[in-house]
Amino acid sequence: MKKRSIIIAALFIFSIADLSLIAVYLKAIEGERITLLDGLYWVITTMTTVGYGDIVFTSHIGKVFSMFVQLYGIGFLFGVAFPYIVIPWAERRFLLSVPKEVNLSRHIVVFGYTRLTPFLCRQLESLGLKYVIVESARENAVKAMEMGYNVILSEVSEEVIRRARIGSAMAIVVMWDDVERSLDVLLTLKDLNIQKIAILSDPFYAKYLHYAGVTKVITPKSVAGAQLAKFILERERGMLNIKNIIGDHGMTEIIIPKRSLIAGMTVGQVEEIYGIKVIAVCEEGRISFRPGEGYKIREGNILLVFGDHESIMEFYGGVYR
């Protein structure tokens, strides 16, 4: 549809340019010189049947040309523009039926069609993961459908749990960079035991989302579809991306989710129990390197830990037990 519209528009522009050149040439034959801009002005006013009369052809060939331009304009408007461009566009915008629910399982539920959503969806598709976008604005839902993404039109309410089959989903990702809308989603789904990821440009409000039950908050400066998809898979499959440093020792980042048994423990207790080293702690956007043994770990903290693979995996299991 888009390709056809571009071709029609291109042909129309070229035809207007050609008719403008012919108009300039015919006026020169009649002994009157007009500019190319005058010719373009005459063609457009004649095609739209406005015809102000300030530029008029007096010769027979000029009059025949004027009638041709009028008929061409009317024919293009009602024979091409309306049936092939205007009407299909109106049907897509106002008559297109947007799905209200899906029948999926083991999928990702994405709330909001934003500028970042296509990147995430393409990455999920490349990994073979199923997803559905939940959008409350019809215009955005139609845009997503036109781009070939799986989307449903639904308000954020208890009903969306059934419509998006959230109960059987792997995770939800809130793409709206709006604290109130994000909180609305998280509070609606607060009782569901499912990992919840949110996009937020201002880390100051991250703590409120953690209170509402979010598993991880990502800022647009660091977000990428690959990172989101990778985090979902790590959490779902129980795998970590441990970067080897030396031998079987490496480092990785682990987020402390809500109601984790690790929350409330000190760094010293964690290091003693699991045999790891906490290199840094990120809390509400602030990073503390080499925190002391008495540093208390809280929900929503991101820990950079070092240790052998077995110890790190044991700690990871304790975090999400």
UniProtKB/TrEMBL annotation:
List the transmembrane segments: 6-28, 40-61, 67-87
Q: Which UniProt keywords apply?
A: Membrane, Transmembrane, Transmembrane helix
What residues does the RCK C-terminal domain cover? 237-321
Is Acetylation included in the keywords of this UniProt record?
no
Task: List locations, semicolon-separated.
Answer: Cell membrane
Q: Extract one GO molecular function annotation from the record.
A: monoatomic cation transmembrane transporter activity
Its principal location? membrane
Q: Mind listing the GO biological process terms from this record? A: potassium ion transport
What topology does the record note for this protein and the membrane? Multi-pass membrane protein
Instruction: State if Cytoplasm is listed as a keyword.
Output: no
Q: Which InterPro entries match?
A: K_chnl_dom, NAD(P)-bd_dom_sf, RCK_C, RCK_C_sf, RCK_N, Trk_Ktr_HKT_K-transport
Annotated signal sequence is: none
Q: Name one Pfam family in it.
A: Ion_trans_2
Q: Which SUPFAM superfamilies does the UniProt record give? A: NAD(P)-binding Rossmann-fold domains (SSF51735), TrkA C-terminal domain-like (SSF116726), Voltage-gated potassium channels (SSF81324)
Q: Which domain of life is it from?
A: Archaea
Gene Ontology CC: one annotated term: plasma membrane
Q: Please state what the protein is called.
A: K+ transport system, NAD-binding component
Annotated source species: Geoglobus ahangari
